[in-house]
Fold:
Amino acid sequence: MSEEMSVATFVPEEPGEQNTRRAFLVAAGAAGLLYTAALGYPIYRYLASPSEMALSATAVTEVTLKDAHKLPRGAVLMFRFGTAPAMLIHHEDGRWVGLSAVCTHLGCTVQYESQADRIHCACHGGVYNAYTGANVSGPPPKPLKLFKVAVNETGVEVSRT
Ligand code: FES
Structure:
C-alpha cells in the first residue's frame, strides 16, 4: 500500500495544472480580501465616532473667528470648523474652550448650557464636560474633540490639537 502512495507522489504534474492551481489560489486570496473588506467596512463605520468622521471630512485645520475675543464670559459662539459644527465657550472663570459640537453618539449638534456649565445633547440626553469635552453621562461613547484656542486682540484662532 505504501508503494502505491509513493508511486502516486511521483506522478509529474502537467505544466498547465500548476498554473491553474496558482491562478485558483490568487483568485481565492483576492476573494478573501474582498470578503474581509466587505465585512470590515460596516464595522469600521459603526465604531468610528460621528465627530471624528465629520472632522476628517474637512481639510480645514484652523479657523479664525474675527472679533470673537469680545465674547462675554458665560457665553458661547457656535461656528463651522470646515463643514462641521463647533463651539467656542468663554467660561465665567475666564477660560476659553473650543470643542467640536458633533455628538459622538449619533452625530447630533450639541449645545452649551451656561446655567449648568455643561454641554448637552438633546437627541438622547448625552452630557459632556464643558472644559474638557469628556463624556459624562448618557449614550455618548467618546469625548468631544477638543481644539486649541488662541485669543488675540483681533479675534480668536481655533485649531486642531
Ligand atoms: S446623538 Fe447625542 S446623545 Fe445620541
In short: The chain has two domains: 2-47, 50-160. The chain has a mean pLDDT of 86. The longest helix spans residues 15-47. Residues 103, 105-106, 108, 121, 123-124, 126, 138-140 surround FE2/S2 (inorganic) cluster (CB under 6 Å).
